[in-house]
């Protein structure tokens, strides 16, 4: 739960298009909404940020305390987050930087906000630097557009994870140890979004379409069966992500190859069957 002080900052931020007074007056501030690692409930936290290209950097300083802040533990469990910046709200992927990249980004943050150096000096804990990568949705006018947007995101994240894995293997001779947080966060976000997407299709989309298209009963049954096959591969990936430091990278790459083959074939098939049925349905749906 946000503190009473945080709640007052959040209220002022939202009431004034991102502008606040007090200790944050004139500073760069955003609101980060994460999903609780244990509770599953959303929590919003005001944080300072630094721009880095098209991304935003936030630091888990916790004012130099010995423990990481709660929002950092939350995003490790649920990498997909929501960001409020000024009057804009958007979804983002939260990826903690590691090693030399973390150090370089922290130096960049300190140049803009020197106070973070004081927080680092106050603790032996290495302050995490988190990169927030905003999602960039396309034009969505129909339910077909929305489905294609989700599929495009899933395909893109899977490509990103595969590229990270290949870079991991190319980094040095021999079997590289573990997987690293960057691979974990991207793959975890992909797996969680995929699970949510398929649950929505199985629970709502397909049952809603099937009575109107009885000639496609076999196609819907096949799509549901493909979901179950993909879920088994997803389960293998999730088990490997549980301990990225000890995970076997070669087994992870093999499971990722399986996921890539199964999912891309499934998405191609689903788009051929379902997109024509959704093209005339407006998105977002009209309010009753």
Please sum up the structure shown.
With 288 residues, the chain is α+β, with helices and mostly antiparallel strands. It has eight helices and seven strands.
Notes on the structure:
This protein is an alpha+beta fold. The chain folds into 2 domains: 131 residues, Electron Transport, Fmn-binding Protein, Chain A (Pnp Oxidase, Chain A, Roll); 136 residues, Up-down Bundle (Four Helix Bundle (Hemerythrin (Met), subunit A)). It has 8 helices and 7 strands. A 7-stranded antiparallel β-sheet has the order 2-1-5-6-7-4-3, with helices on both faces. Helix 5 packs antiparallel against helix 6. The protein is globular. It starts with a helix and ends in a 10-residue tail after the last helix.
Architecture blueprint of SSEs:
Elements: H1 4-15, E1 29-35, E2 42-48, E3 50-52, E4 55-59, H2 70-77, E5 80-85, E6 88-96, H3 99-112, H4 115-121, E7 129-134, H5 143-170, H6 181-209, H7 217-241, H8 249-278
Antiparallel strand pairs: 1-2, 1-5, 3-4, 4-7, 5-6, 6-7
Helix pairs in contact: 5-6, 5-8, 6-7, 7-8
Entry keywords:
288 residues; alpha+beta; Pnp Oxidase, Chain A; Four Helix Bundle (Hemerythrin (Met), subunit A); 2 domains; 7-stranded antiparallel sheet; 8 helices; 53% helix; 15% strand
Shape: globular
Mean pLDDT: 91
Largest sheet: 7 strands, antiparallel
> What is the percentage of strand-forming residues?
5-15%
Radius of gyration: 21 Å
* The CATH class of the largest domain: Mainly Alpha
Biggest sheet strand line-up = 2-1-5-6-7-4-3
Number of helices: 8
CATH superfamily of the largest domain: nmb1532 protein domain like
CATH architectural label of the largest domain? Up-down Bundle
Order of helices and strands: HEEEEHEEHHEHHHH
What structural class do helix, strand and pairing data support? alpha+beta
**Parts with pLDDT < 50 across at least 5 consecutive residues:** none
CATH fold title of the largest domain? Four Helix Bundle (Hemerythrin (Met), subunit A)
The tally of structural domains comes to 2
Organism: Herbidospora solisilvae
Protein name: Nitroreductase family deazaflavin-dependent oxidoreductase
Domain Hemerythrin-like: 143-278
Catalytic activity: oxidized coenzyme F420-(gamma-L-Glu)(n) + a quinol + H(+) = reduced coenzyme F420-(gamma-L-Glu)(n) + a quinone
């Amino acid at each position: 739960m946000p503190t009473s002080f945080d709640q007052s900052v959040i209220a002022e931020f939202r009431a004034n298009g991102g502008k606040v007074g007090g200790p944050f007056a004139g500073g760069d501030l955003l609101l980060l909404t994460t999903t609780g690692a244990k509770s599953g409930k959303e929590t919003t936290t005001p944080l300072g940020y630094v721009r880095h290209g098209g991304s935003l950097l936030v630091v888990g300083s916790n004012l130099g305390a010995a423990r990481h802040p709660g929002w950092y533990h939350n995003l490790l469990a649920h990498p997909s987050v929501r960001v409020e910046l000024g009057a804009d709200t958007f979804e983002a992927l939260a990826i903690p930087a590691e090693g030399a990249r973390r150090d370089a980004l922290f130096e960049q943050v300190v140049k803009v906000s020197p106070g973070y150096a004081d927080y680092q000096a106050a603790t032996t804990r290495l302050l995490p630097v988190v990169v927030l990568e905003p999602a960039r949705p396309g034009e969505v006018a129909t339910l077909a557009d929305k489905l294609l947007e989700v599929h495009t995101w899933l395909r893109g994240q899977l490509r990103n994870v595969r590229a990270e894995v290949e870079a991991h293997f190319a980094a040095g001779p021999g079997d590289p140890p573990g997987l690293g947080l960057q691979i974990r966060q991207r793959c975890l976000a992909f797996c969680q979004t995929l699970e949510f997407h398929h649950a929505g299709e199985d629970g709502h989309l397909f049952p809603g379409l099937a009575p109107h298209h009885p000639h496609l009963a076999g196609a819907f049954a096949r799509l549901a069966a493909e979901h179950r096959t993909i879920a088994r591969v997803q389960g293998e990936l999730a088990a490997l992500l549980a301990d990225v430091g000890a995970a076997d990278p070669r087994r992870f790459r093999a499971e990722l190859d399986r996921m890539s083959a199964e999912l891309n074939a499934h998405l191609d098939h689903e788009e051929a069957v379902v997109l024509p049925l959704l093209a005339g349905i407006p998105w977002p749906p009209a309010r009753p």
